[in-house]
Amino acid sequence: MKKIIYSLIITTLLMLLFLDRCTTQNISTNDFFKPKSYKNFKSLIEKPQSKSYEIVPLIGSFPILYDSLKNDYYVSNDKGLTKYNYLGNIIISDDLEKEKYTSVFDFANFIPYVFAENGVYDFSGNKLVYTKFSQILNSKNEIENTDFKILFEKYYNDAEMVVYDTDRNFDYRAQNYPMYFKIKNNWILLFSQKGDYRFTHSGSSLVENDTIGQIDFLNFPAKFADKKLIVLKDPKSGIYSTKQIGEKIDDDYLKMYTSQLLKEQKFDYQSSNSIELLSRKKDEYYLTGGYFNLPDWVSPSFINTAYYQITYNNEKLFFKEKAIKYFKDSKCKNDLYLYELPKHLRTKSKVAFLDYTINIGGYMNDSTGIVDPIIKNAGLYILKQKTNAKSTIKRSTASTPKPTTKY
């Protein structure tokens, strides 16, 4: 009799384990074991809140950059930028859709300027300002080397700002790079000489180091005046808030590619703020294998509803979103990152950025060509003080002197 009871218990436990690990039935993750408060968790798009803070969708994408002098944030917005103040409120938002092209795709220089076909958009003030190029020179390699040297040296020494860019938006057969000079509120576009690859982003052996967020020319570094922007960082993953296309820039990347420099690497980004997975429940299969595809069949992967807690400045915000539980992983893959300022700047602004970057594809509508993602709500969010919360943070401004250099 005891053997039968033991056999039934073991069989039942194995059956429950099978249901829990191999099917969409929730045993260990059943709602019965969760606090009732989980039913009130909002999705990110529904703007979760605490007493003083809220999470709201952000208009834009990476990079996320910060002006430490004016206490403002910038994110790319299609061909333009969206600018947020120190409270996380939008100051300027323009996607510059009317432009044929802009410099935002590469965003090679961390400054609040966007260079277009015929002029420059300045996002650094309270209003967007457009300035047409006063001159466009050497686009057809029409200037002789001797004359170019004289012209370049004059422009460089006279300019308060000098910006070098990639040639993505120009004829690659010309083999020259755009160089922008701001002289007495006028912008001049001068193209480099054909085949001159002494730029830090061109891979030239003549250039030892490549500073991320600033293209330099050999012996003639860029001049950003007081417009240089800095990146934020997710302290847990070590990922910086640069462009997220291709390989992400983190501490391991910078250790591996020593010629790539990021000036903010010297800053301390340690933080007690965190994102914590509280619980989850299975919704549907994500990946299952055939009978002979082990271990996918025995232990498939699932799309889950995950319940999270963000601890930010000693307050807790709760939300729920989708996450993937892969058969080979002990924990859910949630792809959530919290980007913050360096420690020495956090007293200036109570703002952080949440990246929910999970993507498992979608289904295309044949009539519209629009892809409907399987997992919704992926994107960037801003964590900021609520409008009724008091803030004593003040803005500040500063200026820097203009250097001069010989060619």
Features:
407 residues; mainly beta; 4-stranded antiparallel β-sheet
Task: Explain what you see.
The protein is mainly beta. The protein is 10% helix and 31% strand. The protein has 3 helices and 25 strands. It has helices at residues 2-22, 145-158, 251-256; strands spanning 53-57, 61-67, 72-77, 80-84, 90-94, 113-115, 119-122, 129-132, 135-137, 161-164, 178-183, 186-191, 210-211, 230-231, 233-234, 239-240, 260-261, 274-287, 301-312, 315-325, 336-339, 352-356, 362-364, 371-373, 379-385. It has a 5-stranded antiparallel beta sheet, with no helix packed on it. The protein has a 4-stranded antiparallel beta sheet with strand order 1-25-22-21, with no helix packed on it. A 4-stranded mixed beta sheet has the order 9-12-11-10, with helices on one face.
